[in-house]
Specification:
Elements (H helix, E strand, L loop, with lengths): L1 E5 L2 E8 L11 E8 L1 H13 L3 E7 L3 H12 L3 E6 L3 E8 L5 E8 L17 E5 L8 H14 L3 E5 L3 H7 L1 H11 L3 E5 H5 L9 E6 L2 E6 L5 E4 L13 H14 L4 H13 L15
Parallel strand pairs: 1-4, 1-8, 2-6, 4-5, 8-9, 9-10, 10-11
Antiparallel strand pairs: 2-3, 6-7, 11-12, 12-13
Length: 285
C-alpha cells in the first residue's frame, strides 16, 4: 500500500482574468478545493488508479477540517489524521497562462506530532513531500514514519516540492538531510533539481521538465529521457507535480519499469491541467 504523510489544507483558487491591478479591483473566479501536496498525491492515486493508499496528517478541529477529511474518504483514501488547532489554507493565484503563485498558511498541518506507528500498518511505500521534512514537529513525525516503514522492509520517496521551501530551509542542509534519509526515489522539477547538483546520490532522481522530456538519473549516473505527451490546454498547473508522483509511484508498485512509470505519471499530471485546483479530471482518458 502507498502511504503519504503531510499536508491536508483548503486551497482558495483565484483564477485571474489578467494581471492583478494593485490598489483596485481585478476580475477573478474563485473556488475552494482540497489542497496540500501529500493529500493531492493520495487523492490522485486513489481516484484515478483505484490503488490502496493512506493519508497521514493533521487538520484543525473545525468544520473545514471535517469537510476535507470527508472528501478524501469519499475519494477512496484511508485517512489517518490527528485533529487540533486550525486547518490551514493556501491562496492560489492562477494567471491566464495557467502558472500559479501560492500564498501559504499551513495551520495545523505542521503540528503533526507523536505519530501512532499502527497508522503505518500495511504501508509498503511511503511518499514524503519536502513540506513534511522542513518544519517541526511534522519533520520529527516524518522521520519516525520513514524509520517504521524502512524497518518493515518498505521503500521511501521524497518530493523536493518547492524551491522557496528548500532555499528557506537551506539547500545544503536539505541535501544533507536527503543523504541521511537515503530515499529510494527523489522527485523534483528542473529548478528544484538544481539545488541537488553535486550531491552524492544513492537514489533514483526523477526530474520533471514541463512539456520537455522527463529525465531519470540513476545512482550510477545513467540517464534516461522519457517524452511527455502534449496537453491541448493548460488551465491551472496546481497539483500537476503531485499527480505525477501519484501515477509514477502506483506504477512502480505495480511492477512497471521506469519508462512505464514516467508515462503513467505524465498522463495523470496531464489530467490535472484542465481543472481549477489540484483535482484530477477522472473523465479524461
Amino acid at each position: 500500500m502507498l502511504g503519504v504523510i503531510g499536508d491536508l489544507v483548503e486551497d482558495v483558487v483565484v483564477m485571474l482574468a489578467g494581471p492583478p491591478a494593485r490598489g483596485t479591483d481585478t476580475t477573478a473566479t474563485i473556488a475552494r478545493t482540497r489542497g496540500g501536496s501529500a493529500a493531492n498525491v493520495a487523492a490522485a492515486a486513489a481516484a484515478s488508479t483505484g490503488a490502496a493508499v493512506c493519508f497521514i496528517g493533521r487538520v484543525g478541529d473545525d468544520p473545514v477540517g471535517s469537510r476535507l477529511v470527508d472528501e478524501l474518504v469519499a475519494g477512496g483514501v484511508d485517512v489517518r489524521v490527528q485533529r487540533g488547532g486550525r486547518t490551514g489554507a493556501i491562496v492560489v493565484l492562477v494567471e491566464p497562462d495557467g502558472e500559479r503563485t501560492m500564498l501559504s498558511d499551513r495551520g495545523a498541518a505542521v503540528e503533526l506530532d507523536g505519530l501512532d506507528p499502527a497508522w503505518l500498518d500495511g504501508v509498503t511505500w511511503l511518499h514524503v513531500p519536502a513540506y513534511s521534512l522542513c518544519a517541526e514537529p511534522i519533520g520529527a513525525a516524518a522521520h519516525q514514519a520513514i524509520a517504521v516503514v524502512r524497518a518493515a522492509g518498505g521503500r521511501v520517496s521524497v518530493d523536493v516540492s518547492s524551491v522557496a521551501l528548500v532555499d528557506g530551509f537551506g539547500a545544503a542542509r536539505f541535501a544533507e538531510l536527503l543523504v541521511e534519509l537515503a530515499p529510494d526515489v527523489v522527485l523534483a522539477n528542473a529548478e528544484e533539481a538544481m539545488r541537488l547538483d553535486g550531491v552524492p546520490a544513492s537514489w533514483r532522481l526523477v526530474v520533471k521538465c514541463g512539456a520537455d522530456p522527463v529525465v531519470v538519473v540513476e545512482p550510477d549516473g545513467a540517464r534516461t529521457e522519457v517524452a511527455v505527451a502534449p496537453v491541448a490546454a493548460v488551465r491551472d498547473t496546481t497539483g500537476a507535480g503531485d499527480a505525477f508522483a501519484a501515477g509514477f509511484l502506483v506504477a512502480v508498485l505495480a511492477g512497471q519499469d521506469v519508462v512505464g512509470a514516467v508515462a503513467a505519471g505524465s498522463a495523470l499530471a496531464g489530467r490535472t491541467l484542465g481543472t481549477a485546483g489540484a483535482g484530477v479530471d477522472v473523465s479524461a482518458p
